[in-house]
Write a structure and sequence with these properties.
Layout: E1 2-7, H1 15-29, E2 33-38, H2 64-73, H3 79-90, E3 93-99, H4 107-116, E4 146-152, H5 169-182, E5 187-188, E6 192-194, H6 202-217, H7 265-268
Parallel strand pairs: 1-2, 1-3, 3-4, 4-5, 4-6
Helix pairs in contact: 1-6
The structure holds flavin-adenine dinucleotide.
The site of flavin-adenine dinucleotide has 18 residues, from helix 1 and helix 6.
């Protein structure tokens, strides 16, 4: 299978650098083809701006969405963006790997998403009308592909537990999982998170690699997080709120995940 690894750490000799090398070797040993976007090594341009189009819309003010749409439709995107989109289309699975910085991904990786996820490619896909709000959340350009995070965090696992002070890890990663992966169609795998990175010796590193290796071996068999597809009946149209009879009284990101036992009938069907 084809796998794209997008890596965001400035230091090759870091923990993240070691885990990147381990990941590449493990996947190649299993017979997969790998492409790596090592964003710092590529000197990836993070800010989305007017230079992302080879040729601008004449006389118009820069509009991040409309300029992206125009560039995508007319083959006027900057070449670095085109190359990353081609990698995404080539891949059967995509892994984003990064240290948790201020409760999210490093800015360089956010910039990769903002620029590569063009209008017409990752959003603004499909029919948009009163009856249908596009192909997204389970449908879209990247549907049928898998995506997973490999994240390292300085905080302890308990700090990210259900009542931990940093907030539950699932809630922290929800914008990436649901907003960046599921939105353009990916099936989203549970993340691989390394906690308490300040306390890593050779024994712990070996144990981390062992667990990561298992996850990589199961990349194409692990069950995805069962997010609810937008266009299968679970949401009121056009409000796009979850129907009142599903997860009644509950709110927050967790309501967009089907719970065990659901799945029968139009509201829960996938
Ligand atoms: P490194 O610092 O490179 O390594 C960590 C440890 O692993 C070191 O002890 C190193 O010796 C050891 N190691 C590395 N490679 C190997 C190897 N091959 N074999 C054995 N041992 C090895 N943390 C949070 O929890 N939440 C946050 O919001 C957060 N925000 C941050 C914001 C910033 C700007 C920064 C700089 C840090 C932040 N942190 C936060 C901490 C951050 O998540 C960790 O520093 C990071 O995940 C560690 O990853 P690294 O690759 O940089 O590790």
């Amino acid at each position: 299978m084809n796998i794209l690894l997008v890596h965001a750490h400035p230091e090759p000799r870091s923990l993240n650098g070691s885990l990147r090398d381990f990941t590449i070797q493990r996947l190649q040993a299993a017979g997969h083809s790998i492409q790596v976007s090592d964003l710092y090594a590529m000197n990836w341009k993070a800010p989305l701006d007017a230079d992302d189009s080879i040729e601008r819309r004449s006389g118009e003010r820069f509009d991040p969405s409309l300029d992206s749409k125009n560039a995508y439709e007319h083959g006027l995107q900057s070449l670095d963006i085109v190359r990353e989109q081609e990698k995404l289309l080539w891949a059967d699975a995509v892994i984003l790997q990064f240290p948790l910085w201020w409760f999210s991904m490093p800015a360089i990786l956010k910039g990769w998403v903002e620029r590569v996820y063009a209008y017409g490619f990752a959003y603004g896909v499909g029919e948009h009308s009163d009856a249908r709000w596009g192909d997204r959340y389970g449908e879209g350009t990247l549907a049928g592909k898998r995506a997973m995070l490999i994240v390292t965090a300085g905080g302890w696992e308990s700090h990210y537990g259900p009542r931990g002070i940093n907030g539950p890890i699932d809630e922290l990663l929800f914008p990436i999982h649901h907003g960046i992966f599921y939105y353009p169609g990916f099936d989203v795998l549970p993340p691989f998170v390394v906690y308490r990175t300040g306390r890593i010796d050779q024994a712990r590193y070996a144990e981390i690699c062992s667990r990561l290796g298992e996850r990589l071996d199961e990349l194409f068999s692990t069950a995805p997080i069962p997010y609810r597809p937008q266009n299968a009946g679970a949401y009121e149209i056009p409000d796009l709120t979850l129907r009142a009879e599903i997860a009644p009284g509950q709110t927050g990101g967790g309501v967009h995940v089907e719970s065990a036992g659901e799945g029968a009938g139009p509201a829960g069907s996938r």
